[in-house]
Each structure stands twice: as structure tokens, then as C-alpha cells.
Write a structure and sequence with these properties.
371 residues; alpha+beta; Elongation Factor Tu (Ef-tu), domain 3; 4-stranded antiparallel beta sheet; 4 helices; 46% helix
Length: 371
């Protein structure tokens, strides 16, 4: 039998390394530091609500041409500060100046027509008075003629009795008869004259009414022409575009000779009267927030500066509701998404000069103190 011998040597066991005290210390420090950091964040979250979804906002006034015309001169440049009432640009005034002169000429014509209508009315009233006087005169003459007819009729009757007795001559009777016939004809002539005068009175009255109506029409035309003059003056004033408020002009993409349409936006003016922050908080952060709470704002442009502010108001709806295409969750598959509510925050430190250096659209970090 063969005896197998092993050539392998038995290695001694490796000594057990003792754990370093430094590692234990570092681990302990990390655990304590992590716990302290977590507790700090927890207690901080109980009294604060924070978000970095916030931007600086400001009033922006668009400069819009109210009339169509060619630009004659531009008085401002990009990023220039302008005061309220400063001239920004002018449009060609010649067409509107001609329109104003035409409106003023039409107004003068309307006033002259009114004067002529008033003169005609005065003449018509004079004619009415004349015709009334003629009618009254005719009435008096008719009354006298009727008396004359009655008298001649009585004389003729007496002469008829006398001619039967041959107390008068035939010639005397014929004279009495002729006098009666002449008196009757004179009465008829006066009656016809009165009718003619009455007819003339009606015609003059109609003319007077017509001239009175023409005066009313001329007055209305004058008012219309005055409105045309005011409108022409207003359009002429629109050829000068002025700054509505003080602020900084945005990029000016307009050059002299360019044609502008009425209502066309030209450029914008970022007003310098007020700035604020719009922060979009999650709806889960909305529970303890209320108006009047203190807010600390940190701008990315000035990271080491604290801007003092106050929570002033909440939006009436979430930002999604004001989107161009609001989400509709009534059909299809529904996936719940945490919504954000815009909150307006106003700066309170009016003496802070850095507030004026903020620009609309800048990102800021908002910390709301809930207590």
C-alpha cells in the first residue's frame, strides 16, 4: 500500500484587526449631524413655506399706435429711461392736418347756413305780420262795404217807391241802382282780397315752419361738424406718441419711414412705479398660509441680500386654469398632478435700493414665515 504525503503547509490564522476609534468618532459625528440637520429642517418646515418657483413682476405698458401712418422720427433707443409725457415717436401729420382743415371749413359752412336760415325765418315772420295786418285791414274794409251796401239797398227801395209815384226822375232811380250795384261789387272785391291775404298768410306760415325746421337741421349739422373737428384734432394728436408712465423702454424695432397700422403694438415700457413677486406654491403648502405673513425673498442676482416682503394676496384659481388649454380631467385616464397656486408678494422696505435693480422675470427664492 502506498502512503500519500501532503506537501501543503498549514498557514497560521490572520490576526483580527481592531476597529479604529477615528471611524467610530466620524460615524458618530455624521449620525448626530444628520439627526440635527433633519430636526432643524423639520422644525423649520413647521414654521416656514418655501419655493423657488417665483419670479419678479412689474407693470408693463405697451406703446400702441392709435392711427395708421408713416413714422417720421423715433426719439428713444433700447433700454432708455423715459419720463411720463416724453415724446417717443412721431407719425406723418400732413393727412390729418388736411382732414382738420376740411372739418373746420365744413363747420364754417354749416354756421353760415344757420345764419341764412335764421335770416329767412326773420323775413318770414315779418311777412306773417304783414299778411295778418292785410287781413285785418280787409276785414275793416269789408265791414264798411257791407254798411255801404245796406245803405244803397235802403236808398234803392225808397227810390223804387218814389219812381212808382213819379216823384223822382228815372235818372235818379238809375243812379241809386248803380250805387247799390257798385257797393256790392266793392264788397265782393274786398272779400276776394281777404281770401287772397288769408291764403298768403298760410303760405308764409308754411314757409316760416320750413325755415324753423331748417334752423333745427342747421343746428344739428353744426354739432356734427363740431364733432368732426374734435375727431380730426384728436387724430392729429395721435400722431405724437408719448410715454404713458415713467419707465424703461424695451427693444425698439421701429425705424423712420416704417408704416404702422392702427392698433399695432410698437414696443413696451417697463414701468418703474412698483415691483412685486409672484410665487407659485404647491396646493399642499397652502394650508397655513394667509395674507399679511412676513416673507423673506432671495434673488439669484443678489444671493446674500434679504428682501423684506409680505404676502398680499392669493390668485382666485390655479395657474393651470389660466393656461391657453386648461386641463380637462372629465375624460380619459386621470393622473393626479399637484397644482400650483400663484401668490402675490409685495416688497415692504421702500428704502431698499436693490429693489429698483430687480428686473421682471428674474428668479427669486421665497420663504414665508407662517407665525
Amino acid at each position: 500500500m502506498e502512503v500519500i504525503t501532503s506537501t501543503e503547509t498549514v498557514q497560521p490564522a490572520a490576526p483580527v484587526k481592531k476597529k479604529s476609534k477615528g471611524f467610530i468618532i466620524v460615524l458618530t459625528v455624521l449620525v448626530i449631524g444628520g439627526g440635527w440637520f433633519g430636526l432643524t429642517k423639520y422644525f423649520h418646515a413647521q414654521h416656514h413655506e418655501e419655493t423657488d418657483d417665483a419670479q419678479v413682476e412689474s407693470n408693463i405698458s405697451p406703446v400702441i399706435s392709435r392711427i395708421s401712418g408713416y413714422v417720421t422720427k423715433v426719439y428713444v433707443a433700447d433700454n432708455q429711461f423715459v419720463h411720463k409725457g416724453d415724446t417717443l415717436m412721431t407719425l406723418d401729420q400732413r393727412d390729418h392736418q388736411i382732414a382738420l382743415e376740411q372739418a373746420e371749413a365744413a363747420l364754417a359752412t354749416a354756421k353760415s347756413n344757420l345764419g341764412a336760415a335764421e335770416a329767412n325765418t326773420a323775413a318770414a315772420r315779418t311777412n306773417i305780420q304783414t299778411t295778418h295786418a292785410a287781413v285785418e285791414t280787409a276785414d275793416a274794409q269789408i265791414e264798411a262795404a257791407r254798411v255801404n251796401v245796406w245803405r244803397t239797398s235802403q236808398d234803392l227801395q225808397r227810390y223804387e217807391n218814389l219812381i212808382k209815384d213819379h216823384s223822382i226822375t228815372q235818372q235818379q232811380y238809375e243812379q241809386a241802382l248803380a250805387s247799390k250795384q257798385l257797393a256790392e261789387r266793392q264788397l265782393q272785391v274786398l272779400i276776394d282780397q281777404k281770401k287772397q291775404a288769408s291764403t298768403q298768410t298760410g303760405v308764409v306760415s308754411s314757409q316760416t315752419n320750413a325755415t324753423a325746421q331748417s334752423i333745427a337741421v342747421a343746428g344739428s349739422v353744426i354739432k356734427q361738424r363740431e364733432v368732426d373737428v374734435d375727431n380730426a384734432k384728436l387724430n392729429l394728436s395721435y400722431t405724437v406718441l408719448v410715454a404713458p408712465e415713467s419707465g424703461i423702454v424695451s427693444k425698439v424695432p421701429v425705424q423712420a419711414g416704417q408704416f404702422l397700422q392702427a392698433g399695432q403694438p410698437v414696443f413696451n415700457i417697463v414701468l418703474s412705479n412698483e415691483k412685486w413677486v409672484v410665487a407659485n406654491f404647491k396646493e399642499t403648502q397652502f394650508n397655513k398660509m394667509k395674507e399679511g405673513q412676513k416673507v423673506i425673498v432671495h434673488a439669484d442676482a443678489f444671493p446674500k441680500h434679504d428682501f423684506m416682503a409680505v404676502l398680499s394676496s392669493f390668485s382666485p384659481a390655479t395657474g393651470a386654469r389660466f393656461a391657453l388649454l386648461p386641463p380637462d380631467n372629465a375624460s380619459g385616464n386621470f393622473v393626479k398632478v399637484v397644482q400650483r397656486l400663484p401668490v402675490k408678494i409685495d416688497f415692504t422696505d421702500k428704502s431698499d435700493s436693490l429693489v429698483q435693480r430687480l428686473r421682471p422675470g428674474m428668479n427669486v427664492y421665497v420663504d414665508v414665515h407662517l407665525d
